């Protein structure tokens, strides 16, 4: 039987080779995704921002429901894409490193909850686009994951992320009319819930059963 000295094949264990490999793969994947957003913005600009109008969320309009799917990929300009790129890479890397299946379940859950929240709570005279709801969702996931999974690594990451981006939580409350605080708030709440729903299950402890060796049955 092959023995793994020190658990180096466990990607969830801080300091192992598999852990660093998982972080590296996640970082590369998120860096590769950001150019896709810039490409979409390039096409949107060439078409006179028609993609924003067609694919954005239109609160409380039935023809704006499809924006729940498309809005996270659309932005109002290159500056908007750029401002979302760094937090998307940083936060997305830590969320993805915990497992691709959980990443996709978490991302879809956050995008849907944030989008539905914007559709119900947003101003009906606006069109909402951008990945900010998903980003705030990732922030919620990381902050909550260390608690629900009782992982010192995730707690440390949560504290670091809190120091880096905690000040942005103010964007979850009404303020700048050009910012969808509804999407930020709903995304953040969705991230907290997702961390609980899609948490890593701890293996049940193995019960040791003592056996009694019996001698030959003598009648």
Just give the CATH class. Answer: Mainly Alpha
- What structural class do you assign from the helix and strand content? mainly alpha
Average pLDDT for all residues? 83
Multimeric state: single chain
N- to C-terminal distance: 42 Å
Question: How would you summarize the topology of this molecule?
Answer:
Elements: H1 17-46, H2 50-55, H3 67-70, H4 78-97, H5 100-121, H6 132-148, H7 152-165, H8 181-197
Protein architecture, described:
The structure is a single chain. The longest helix has 30 residues, at 17-46. The protein has a single domain, classed as Rhomboid-like (Rhomboid-like fold, Up-down Bundle), CATH 1.20.1540. The protein has helices at residues 17-46, 50-55, 67-70, 78-97, 100-121, 132-148, 152-165, 181-197. It has 8 helices and no strands. With 219 residues, it is mainly alpha-helical. Helix 5 packs antiparallel against helix 8 and helix 6 packs antiparallel against helix 7 (152-165). 59% of the residues lie in helices and 0% in strands.
